[in-house]
Each structure stands twice: as structure tokens, then as C-alpha cells.
């Protein structure tokens, strides 16, 4: 029962504060080139273009001249095949898969993400199946998809292992997967969350490690979200090895120094990139499902 209550809180929180990539989490406001802040209505083309522009900028190193996120996804390999996104947010990644010719199915726990992603597909004339669904209990049959991916979503699940089990249950043997989870062995976690907030600001005296991580990750301007728990490489390997013989884990993403912006200029970009590869905030987990993996009973 407690897990279900937490799940309801998670669903309601993300419905009220979707991942807009705005200047404030959950709001459709964006900074213009001349320094002004401009607001847009959800579901409009201008809104989606600002969501995408900001998301693409944050993930700049993952794109090629040919396609967005092409350093993550081998689109050509899955053209005309069944691809599942777990946690579609506002539909940026699902849109790119649809444009690259995949038979994309995108799910999300909260109804706002489902409605907005459906609206996006309608506006852009794209084909895909967008459904509201719980990652802990996918409604698909066994081995329904050729590729399954999730970007920055499943660390918000109160039962991460169950979500991983379900992802592999619906993946065909030999099919590929890609999952991004926050990294508990990162500079951001150690310095920003544990040291600055937990120790210097004294919040570890009245917040658990889980509560600290939830409060100072997504939605920190609004006192955080209901559940965020980053993982370690060791935990990832324990969860994924029963399903994949070639699981690989790569670190990347932001490095938080906790320094004023003027001082950050003294850290050369090459050093930041090297640190990110070792202690970045994101872990990208990829591989293929081994043949003969036993499906979990529903």
C-alpha cells in the first residue's frame, strides 16, 4: 500500500510539474537571446520548439550532423521495428524515433505527459502509440519490442528493480536497450547534495539520504520531487547482468563544482569533460538482451 501511495504522489507531482526544461522546473517559461523571459502555452508548436531547443542544448554531445541523439541510438538498425520508450515526458525523444522510421510506443505514468506527447505527434504529423502506463506493470505481452529505452525516468520509481524486470520482460532476445539513471558516485551528488545541502546546511539532520536526493534534484526550486534515488555502477550491474551479457555503463552529464560562475571559468573544458566521464551525473546503460533469458511471471 505504501508503494502505491508513493506512486500516486509521483504521478500527481509530475503531472503538476512536467519536465519542460524551462527556467523554472515545470513551467513553460524560457530565456530569450536578449535576456528576457518569455512564457508559452502548453501544447503549442512554439512551446514544443522551446522544450526541444533547451533539451538539445543540454545534451549537445549526444547529437550528430545526421540526427539528434544519434550518438546514443542506432536508428537505422531499428527502422520499421518496435521501439518502446518508458517515460516519454513531453515527447522529444519519441518524436525523433518516429521521424527515423521506428514503430514507436511511448508510455508515461502521468496523464499530462501522455496528453502533451499525443498533441506533439498530432501537430507534427507523426505516427506512434502514446499510452498512460506504470513502468512497474507494463500491459504488453512478453518479447513485444526490439528496443527499449528510458531517459532520466526510472530513478524516480519506488521499485526500480521491478521496472528493470518489466523492461526486459517485454524486450525480445537479442534486442537492444538504453537506460539513463542518475549517478550516486558523481560530483553533483557528493558535493551539491551530500556536502553543501546535507552537511553545510545541516539538512542531513532531519532528512534521509533518499529525501535529500529527492529534494535537490528535479524540482529543487519547489522543494524537490517525491522520489529520486540515484544508483551506482555496481548496483546497475547487479540489476542488469541476469538479462544481459554485454551490459555497458558510461558516465556523463553535468559536473557541479558549487562555485560561482566566474570561478568556474578557471576550470578548462577538457578537465570538465574528463571529470564528467568519470563522475558525471548521468549513467548511460546499454547492451542487448541475452538469448534464452527466462521471462518473469506476471
Structural features, described:
This protein has 298 residues and is of the alpha/beta class. The chain is 35% helix and 17% strand. A seven-stranded mixed sheet has the order 5-4-3-6-7-9-8, with helices on both faces. Strands 1-2 form a two-stranded antiparallel sheet. The mean pLDDT is 92.
Major β-sheet profile:
7 strands, mixed
Extract low-pLDDT stretches: none
Query: How many β-strand stretches?
Result: 9
H-E string: HEEHEHEHEEHEHHHEHHE
The whole-angstrom Rg is 19 Å
Whole-number average pLDDT? 92
**Which range best describes the helical content: under 10%, 10-25%, 25-40%, 40-55%, 55-70% or over 70%?**
25-40%
Based on helices, strands and strand pairing, what is the structural class?
Answer: alpha/beta
Shape: globular
Tally of individual helices: 10
